[in-house]
């Protein structure tokens, strides 16, 4: 399993669940699209997986829907992005709408916008996943992100153990 998929199916859904009801934490997910007409960072034949994901995100009403879809896509056992998207389209994400987006101008436009965001953030080479907390580059792991998010003032119950005052006597 790639590092991206491991983060998307493990650490990130766990982290999101810990802060899902904390209004002090906002989330933004943007795929690694260097060239919307070429290969994406973690794909070898275009940007089909990223395009399907963006089309799903576009109709997702809640961040939880995006997180669930992304996790499902990262767990998919197929090489076909649309087949994976079809199996991951549940609840508010309608597969026929996703498919129309994917095969039309809307999907191309979403890829272009994602590419602009990614290239503005990372004009040079970058690792993925790449995570930031309040513009601070943070290691993409549950423990690192938990610590930085909590230290940034999050109020989720999980932060009570992270924000505890620690005294060291030497």
The outline comes out as: globular
Structural class of the helices, strands and pairings?
A: mainly alpha
**Which residues form runs of ≥5 with pLDDT under 50?**
164-170
Instruction: Look at the structure and give the mean pLDDT.
Output: 87
Helix/strand order, N-terminal first: HHHHHHEEHH
- β-strand amount: under 5%
Query: In whole angstroms, how far apart are the ends?
Result: 43 Å
Rounded radius of gyration (Å): 17 Å
- For the biggest β-sheet, the strand order reads 1-2
Determine the fraction of residues in helical runs and give it as a percent range: 40-55%
DSSP, total strands: 2
Number of helices: 8
* Biggest sheet statistics: 2 strands, antiparallel
Explain what the structure shows.
The chain is mainly alpha-helical. The chain contains eight helices and two strands. Strands 1-2 form a two-stranded antiparallel sheet. The model is unreliable at 164-170 (pLDDT under 50).
Chain-wise SSE layout:
Layout lengths: L2 H17 L28 H12 L3 H13 L5 H8 L6 H8 L2 H17 L9 E3 L2 E3 L3 H10 L7 H4 L8
Antiparallel strand pairs: 1-2
Helix pairs in contact: 1-3, 2-3, 2-5, 2-6, 3-4
Give structural attributes.
disordered C terminus; mainly alpha; 170 residues; single chain; 8 helices
């Amino acid at each position: 399993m790639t590092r991206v998929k491991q983060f998307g199916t493990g650490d990130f859904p766990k982290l999101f669940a810990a802060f899902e009801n904390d209004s002090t934490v906002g989330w933004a997910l943007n795929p690694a699209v260097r060239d919307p007409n070429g290969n994406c960072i973690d794909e070898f034949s275009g940007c089909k997986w990223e395009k399907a994901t963006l089309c799903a995100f576009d109709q997702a009403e809640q961040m939880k829907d995006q997180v669930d879809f992304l996790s499902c896509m990262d767990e998919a056992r197929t090489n076909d992005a649309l087949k994976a998207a079809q199996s991951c389209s549940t609840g508010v994400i309608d597969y026929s709408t996703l498919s129309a987006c994917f095969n039309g101008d809307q999907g191309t436009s979403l890829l272009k916008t994602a590419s602009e965001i990614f290239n503005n953030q990372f004009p040079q080479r970058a690792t993925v996943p790449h995570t930031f907390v309040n513009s601070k580059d943070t290691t993409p792991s549950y423990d690192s992100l938990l610590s930085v998010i909590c230290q940034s003032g999050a109020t989720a119950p999980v932060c009570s153990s992270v924000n505890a005052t620690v005294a060291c006597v030497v």
